[in-house]
Amino acid sequence: MAKKFELNEVEVWDGNMAAAHALRQAQVDIVAAYPITPSTPIVQNYSKFLADGYVDGEFIMVESEHSAMSGCVAASAAGVRAATATSSQGFALMVEVLYQASGMRLPIVLTVVNRALAAPLNVNGDHSDMYLGRDAGWINLCSYNPQEAYDLTLMAFKIGEDPNVRLPVMVHQDGFICSHTAQNVRPLQDEEAAEFVGEYKPVNTMLDVANPVTHGVQTEEDWHFEHKARQHHDLMNSFDTIKKVFNEFKERTGREYDLVYTYKMDDADVAIFALGTTVESARIAADQMREKGIKAGVVSLRVLRPFPFKEVAKALENVKAVAAMDRSAPGGTFGALFNEVSATMLAHGKSPVMLNYIYGLGGRDTTIDMLKEVYEDLDKCAKAGKAVVPLQQFLGLRGPKLSFY
Amino acid sequence: MVKKIKNLKELSLSNDRFEGANLMCPGCSHNIIVREVLNATDDPVIVATATGCLEVCTAVYPKTSWDVSWIHIGFENAAVAAATVSAAYEVMKKKGKLPPATQKMVDEGKEPKIVAFAGDGGTYDIGFQSLSGAFERGHNFMYVCLDNEVYANTGGQRSSSTPIGASTTTSPAGSVSYGEKMMKKSMVEIMADHGAPYVAQVSPSKWKDLIKKVQKGFEVYGPVYINAQSACTTEWKHAPEDTIEVSDLGVESCVWPLYEIINERDEHGIIYSTKLNITYRPKNKIPVEEYLAAQPRFRHLFKPENRHIIDLWQKAVDTRWEYLQRREEAGV
Ligand SMILES: Cc1ncc(C[n+]2csc(CCOP(=O)(O)OP(=O)(O)O)c2C)c(N)n1
Ligand code: SF4
Q: In sequence order, what are the residues at sequence separation of 6 or more whose Cβ sits closer than 8 angstroms to the Cβ of residue A284?
């Protein structure tokens, strides 16, 4: 039996420590991992917990991220609780296996500490890796600070392992800004966390020698389509379980989570739509704009996949202009978030002015003043009833302004 | 518990873990090897396979040829898959959380045997990193390479196991080329140098030798590597009924020497002794030419302008045979 970790009511943890404690409290049986900045401390903390007897499972320090995720897939298929953490290049190396994990319906938990993708090589935070993996068939949860990284990681196990879901779950947090910034975190005590997460009840385990199972078969055109449709169906239906788990968590801790998080949206004319640590800055910018008489609000996602299209449409139904903020290089089109939010609005028969801001690449600081500039652009468009600024702008770039469309 | 096998008939009859009813070509050695390996033990077996002929021909939904737990993840991760299943087994055993039927078998003294099967492409090339990592970490599992010296499933491209002179789709023989330019990588020694407690080379034609080695491998704790010669009717281009004969020519000519390397080591991987045993010594070592002549993939080597490659082959095989004998004599 693992030793109990004595926790204070309030701990000062950074996002990595918060995630590591969540993995410890979930008593993950196998963590197979490979180090990469900025997620390295998660696996370091985890191995220290193991060395000190606070975890009962096994930590396998594999030779690559490809093997880390492959190990998680095999362990999960064997019937144990498996988790890992990574960032950026490591995440990119895992991509092939991410699809295997979701296609085999294995509830692995992956903490992604978001970071830019090379080249140029950069260790700092942006959301390039988050967008690279968003179509891999995983549930994607987004946290904005260490408390949320902790809460959502605990919830990730419960969501993914639910018999109606049986899918892997990623929990994102911003590199350095969240992962390396210590804040007050209110943890659950070990027994309480274990009781919340619950015991893992695997299905079709390879270790049951009386009931052999075949994992990872080949299907061609006669079956592949049905399998993928079923997977999509269950992913789309996972909203119910996600909401149920969010509610249970609220009952236990008082901390409220929702698919979409809105701030001052009841009467907003203009809205910033953002993910990650920028959400908190945007709220401050919105408050300051409201002092100037501009009805500003913020919308953010707690769940990137499945994409909560109804809630997004509802949150934005009365706004005149929206700025979708993409913290990743757009690669020859509008940003990924912009495309999704625009499509959602169009599908619901709404057409606010949609602007796309590319910002914060490779860890570039995004200040409250910059976000206020965005609100000012939005205000101009809202008043004009059409786009009077370029549709896509790079925010906070040195030198001449860069804009497209 | 070593299973006693009296004769070939008994061996072939005892198998209900891997169905011969699958999509592999007639005469494919992969089938024969897998059956021989799975039949070497009565203990439960759990299998991981890499992408390749074996995988695509034996688990096409909604059917499966496997009556053991089986997983396929990707081309390059059969080793880490088997290694992690093994780790998962150990964790669950320690925690007392094994499924009841498995726990019962363990109480009766039977431990599941965890085996990875992969082709030479999945072993010598793309899967080498995960294989090396899993062996270095010392997981308790057996890795069997079905070495047909070619990427068969994608239509016969060269791999780093393809021997010199073979014509493949990416090292084709032509008017100015005799085919593959490099001699094959010596995987057995590479894996033995990882400190694996047991490493062996086998051929399905010498089935008793193969079974004995697999049984030895199952008896030791730690990663075991078995390099299995796997004649491929489609890419070696011999007739299906000649598979075993072609395999035997490989053994009798010492192109495919049968030997084992035993590393005595502790749980930290500290090696106290290394011993190489040749397990089959041909009475009359036949010329390499006879082996090459039996396979149309080498047909072009018999043209006058390519004869020197056959000489090179003979020299390489003789040198290697000499090396193995000397190592055996020296006990290292
Ligand atoms: C990452 C990746 N690259 C390439 C492939 C394509 N591929 C599938 S099977 C195969 C060849 C398998 O050859 P080998 O390992 O020698 O096994 P064999 O089919 O000969 O038994 C290749 C190249 C793949 N499945 N995955
Ligand atoms: S191509 Fe070769 S290895 Fe593949 S199934 Fe046919 S004979 Fe076997």
A: A368
